[in-house]
Amino acid sequence: MENPRKEQAMNKSSQSAETTAETISDTVIAVLDRLAGKKSDLKLSFEDLTFDTGVFKARVNGSVILETTMAKEQ
């Protein structure tokens, strides 16, 4: 039999992490939308970026480079 409190905490943490990921992705999409067609690069650098959900804690170092390209529909 699982501990209901532990399960509830894990569900809450999972929902929190999902909301954070959605917020970050929405922001990146908005920035890319503005850069589209301008031959721009977007570099997101992380140094000691910490995700703490209460159940687990993760630290991230690194970067993500996104290149925007405008394409015409035929």
Descriptive notes:
The protein is α+β, with helices and mostly antiparallel strands. It has one domain (4-67). The protein has one helix spanning 4-35, and strands spanning 41-52, 57-67. Strands 1-2 form a two-stranded antiparallel sheet. A hairpin with a 4-residue loop joins strand 1 and strand 2 (57-67). It is elongated and about 55 Å long. 0% of the residues are buried. The model has no long low-confidence stretch (mean pLDDT 76).
Order of helices and strands: HEE
Gyration radius over CA: 18 Å
Segments where pLDDT lies below 50 for 5+ residues? Answer: none
Largest sheet geometry: 2 strands, antiparallel
Q: How many helices?
A: 1
What is the topological layout?
Layout: H1 4-35, E1 41-52, E2 57-67
Antiparallel strand pairs: 1-2
What would you say about this model in short?
This protein has one helix and two strands.
